Amino acid sequence: MTTIARATDTLTRDALTVLQPGFTGTTAPDWLLRRLGEGLASVALFGRNVTSPEQVAALTAQLRAEREDVLVAIDEEGGDVTRLEVRTGSSFPGNHALGAVDDVGLTRAVAAELGRRLAASGVDFNWAPSADVNSNPDNPVIGVRSFGAGTDLVARHTAAYVTGMQSAGVATCTKHFPGHGDTGIDSHHAVPLIDVDFDVLAARDLVPFRAAIAAGSRAVMSAHILVPALDPDRPATLSRRILTDLLRGELGYDGLIVTDGIEMKAIAGTYGIERGTALAIAAGADAICVGGGLSDEGTVRRLSDALVEAVRTGELPEERLADAAARVRALAGWTAAHRTDARTGDAVDGDVGLRAARRALRVTVAEEFTPLTEPPYVAALTPVANIAVGDETPWGIAAELFRLLPGTETGSFSGADAGNEALAAAGSRRIVAVVRDEHRHPWMAAALDVLLAARPDTIVVEMGVPRAEPRGAVHLATHGAARVCGLAAAEAIAGA
After folding, report:
1. Is residue 188 among the annotated active site residues?
2. How many other C-beta atoms lie within 10 A of the C-beta of residue 232?
3. pLDDT, tens digit, for every residue of 433-456?
4. Per-residue pLDDT reduced to its tens digit, 98-154
5. CB atoms within 10 A of CB 424
6. Is residue 176 annotated as a catalytic residue, yes or no?
């Protein structure tokens, strides 16, 4: 009986160890602390858990008082996807801006400073960078999260990002394997299909992951995408062919494999989160990301119970679960060994984010431009935010222009009559029209048509992927909607 009890306890602890759950609130709930004592080895932070760096530091200290080697994970890409600065916008431009500059030293420096700030808050595991080659310009979920559409460009900046962030003692998690760039569907909503030959995948999508592995990325995140050339039956997260045969075997990767959010519809809506979790670990994943949407103790219990049951029924080999748990503990050991007290250290480069955003700015002038001296009207043509970015984080340039030109006014517009509504709201003020991926939104392009026909002196600021032809008296492409990208554009408009 003792042997059985001990085995059951080990099995349960391993099942908890491979979960990376989230929670609600800005302090750790009792159930989370209790689960840490029972074997949970990772905790995920989201924007809802963050109010300030000091609060995050206190929260992570609370977690480590319960378990010293706990992995504290976050989805902090910088740019449009920020959790540390979820309510203000990021102090760092995202991947697309860094790719536009194409200075790997700058990318390394930005990642190192972002890593330093994460480490100072007690976060030691970052679900970044995105190594997706944005080969489909209509991609609704990657876009500016990618370094660009060029394979070599994405590969060298992915490697630089990994090197920079891990120099601060924060483990990177390169995503979304085997590449989410050639999709027209967001896997938060359904299962995207990438139907190209293996040779295309090998020459395009897999190259940045090879670079990340060579650079020593401590983790790789799987994508919930169906790639028939690799596995015609199961999405990558649930595919042994992709995770074990390709990633571990052919690419020679030996670090931690983490799933994308298991509650995303691509998995939850087709397999269910319990079965999806068991299938993912059986396929070769080592950790299950959950908590973006489901963030309660019941979810943790359901998933850990599903893993235990899968072992007992023979669907999941016990040694596979044990191996996955061992890899989680190994990463926790790496971060503990590399953890530094960044709070007492000097900043690597506190202004590197703004400098990078300024370098990424591309200005196209149709006629001689004189910087504004009077407060304009900022018309934000606002699309629906994708789930990865979220709608909590402010974007645009109005707040930054207001600081430089007090009295600046703004409004948000969308839909078929957005152009006329913006004209009416602006009155006689100079218009600054702010767009995000104009090329993907016909209504947005039509609204610009209306604005420019009536007011040819309109200034256009593109804060998404600048695929549409530049137009307006002045066109500014920021390559992302981070706060510093907005500041860089506002400085150019106001001549600051």
Report:
1. yes
2. 11
3. 999 999 999 999 999 999 999 999
4. 999 999 999 999 999 999 999 999 999 999 999 999 999 888 889 999 999 999 999
5. 10
6. no
